[in-house]
Write a structure and sequence with these properties.
about 120 residues, three-stranded antiparallel β-sheet, Jelly Rolls, globular, mainly beta, single chain, six-stranded antiparallel β-sheet
């Protein structure tokens, strides 16, 4: 495993991975205003997100094709994202989101992606 912390640049901003073990991962997602992460789900990864600063929109749905439940996601808000829950965040302002998760960093199924990633 790489030494922490380390930064991973993304088209929407970056991830700062500040903790990584065989049992958990801690990261900060910095999402630039107007940018959106993939509409995605995880087969095994379990995560909780907490907004440190900024304002985002959180979209969740139980199954592909369901209408998305859209809620404001602001500083001080937290959400648990269990495996298989379809989710997406979009930044209204520059935002920092703390994420704690199980260690399966490659467990990602993208359903839609603004940046052309498969």
């Amino acid at each position: 495993m790489p030494d922490v912390p380390y930064r991973v640049d993304k088209p929407w901003g970056y991830e700062l991975i500040w903790a990584r073990t065989d049992r958990y991962v801690g990261k900060v997602l910095h999402v630039k205003a107007g940018h959106v992460l993939s509409l995605q789900y995880h087969k095994r990864k379990d995560e909780t997100m907490h907004v440190l600063s900024g304002e985002l929109i959180l979209r969740t749905m139980k199954s592909e094709g369901d209408p998305a439940e859209t809620t404001p996601f602001r500083a001080g808000d937290s959400v648990h994202i269990p495996p298989l829950l379809i989710h997406q965040i979009e930044a209204v302002t520059d935002s920092d989101v703390l994420e704690a998760s199980t260690p399966e960093l490659d467990d990602l199924v993208r359903l839609q992606d603004r940046y052309g990633r498969g």
